[in-house]
């Protein structure tokens, strides 16, 4: 699959305007290119979908950016959008059981901030869906909130929108990597404090703890779309050496261009690099973290750690312990296991500049949300049109 630039799919097809509210005019957004459905590969699902108007359950806010694509989407499908009060879990379940929206064929969630009022998509919700549902396309890269295995077993393709967020997350990850080498939280807080003693202390003493990035080893835990984007920036922008660990075998076309070194285990990776970046997806149904005291014990003394993946993948108390002991020199964490609550111990380390803590912001750009919308609609139209989904994540479970 082609990697993104600012948006998930290559541009070419012009779009018409649409009467849908929420945007600022016509249908062509300059940062929202689309892909013709006819260019997608043929799918075995085609036999199940003769060309006809299908029903789509649209959960969440109205489409705001890609109005031209929405015009095409709504021309092909009958869009049903439940009211906000109908999306609360109890009411939503009751509506499904009553078949209030009939036998719909797809679920469409174009934004991450809304459309999740019903909570986790577990067996209770999934088993209440009509048997006609064949695709669930959502904004967001993560899918630990949905039982994608059960969806697949029910014959429902789940599509995420990680491709649309890859560039934004990679850019943010670079800022976090720089922070771990240059103690940016300390530099910022000292300058912002208004205290001349703090300013002078940071000016004089941050130097001895700061380093250039060039020549250091960066380890990618996960070399998917986001990992590859981060690796390219580190290799070609900062002259860093690329190491990686991934459960999937990476093609030589990817690794050779980066001169990337593969590691046979996570322990080997973190024990070899100067900074490790967690950019792997959460594993649906996983009950334990990926980075615990055991893995942290394998890090090189004074190494750095960055998390732009999922908060649930990291034991933050163990990270705080590693900072206390000096095992880790600094960390940068965009995601947290109990959001919006942040570890008190890590907040204390942020005051000294050893921890950069952000509010799950890595993928949060206008361009990302434009891509979420576009890609979600394109996935639904592809599957209901008998074509392959663009970004499916559960095909191995599909019956």
Automatic annotation (TrEMBL):
It holds the Pfam family 2-Hacid_dh_C. Residues 1-37 are annotated as: Disordered. Residues 175-362 form the D-isomer specific 2-hydroxyacid dehydrogenase NAD-binding domain. SUPFAM superfamilies: Formate/glycerate dehydrogenase catalytic domain-like, NAD(P)-binding Rossmann-fold domains. GO terms for cellular component: cytosol. GO terms for molecular function: glyoxylate reductase (NADPH) activity; hydroxypyruvate reductase [NAD(P)H] activity; NAD binding. It comes from the Eukaryota. Keywords: Oxidoreductase. Residues 121-394 form the D-isomer specific 2-hydroxyacid dehydrogenase catalytic domain. This is D-mandelate dehydrogenase. Belongs to the D-isomer specific 2-hydroxyacid dehydrogenase family. The lineage of its organism: Eukaryota, Fungi, Dikarya, Ascomycota, Pezizomycotina. Residues 1-15 have a biased composition (Polar residues).
């Amino acid at each position: 699959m082609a990697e993104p630039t600012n948006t998930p799919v290559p541009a070419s097809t012009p779009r018409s305007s649409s009467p849908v509210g929420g945007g600022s005019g016509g249908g062509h957004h300059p940062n929202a290119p689309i892909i013709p459905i006819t260019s997608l590969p043929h799918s075995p699902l085609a036999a199940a979908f003769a060309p006809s108007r299908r029903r789509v359950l649209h959960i969440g806010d109205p489409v705001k950016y890609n109005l031209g694509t929405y015009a095409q989407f709504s021309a092909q499908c009958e869009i049903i959008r439940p009211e906000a009060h109908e999306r609360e879990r109890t009411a939503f379940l009751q509506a499904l059981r009553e078949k209030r929206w009939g036998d719909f064929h797809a679920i469409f969630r174009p934004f991450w901030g809304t459309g999740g009022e019903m909570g986790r998509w577990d067996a209770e919700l999934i088993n209440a869906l009509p048997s006609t549902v064949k695709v669930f396309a959502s904004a967001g890269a993560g899918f630990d909130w949905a039982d994608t295995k059960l969806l697949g077993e029910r014959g429902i393709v789940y599509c995420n929108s990680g491709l649309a967020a890859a560039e934004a997350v990679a850019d943010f990850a670079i800022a976090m990597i720089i922070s771990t080498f240059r103690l940016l939280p300390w530099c910022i807080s000292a300058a912002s404090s208004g205290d001349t003693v703090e300013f002078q202390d940071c000016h004089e003493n941050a130097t001895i703890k700061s380093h250039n990035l060039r020549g250091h080893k960066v380890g990618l835990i996960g070399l998917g779309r986001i990992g590859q984007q981060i690796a390219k920036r580190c290799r070609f922008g900062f002259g860093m050496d690329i190491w990686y660990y991934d459960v999937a075998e990476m093609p030589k076309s990817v690794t050779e261009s980066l001169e990337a070194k593969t590691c046979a285990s996570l322990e080997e990776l973190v024990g070899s690099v100067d900074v490790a970046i967690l950019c792997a997806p959460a594993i649906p149904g996983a009950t334990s973290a990926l980075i615990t005291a055991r893995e942290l014990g394998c890090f090189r003394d004074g190494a750095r750690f960055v998390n732009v993946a999922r908060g649930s993948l990291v034991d933050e108390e163990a990270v705080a312990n590693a900072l206390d002991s000096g095992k880790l020199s600094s960390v940068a964490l965009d995601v947290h296991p109990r959001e919006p609550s942040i570890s008190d111990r890590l907040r204390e380390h942020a005051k000294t500049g050893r921890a950069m803590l952000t509010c799950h912001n890595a993928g949060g750009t206008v361009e990302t949300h434009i891509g979420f919308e576009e890609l979600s609609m394109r996935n639904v139209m592809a599957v209901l049109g008998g074509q392959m989904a663009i970004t499916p994540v559960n095909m191995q479970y599909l019956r």
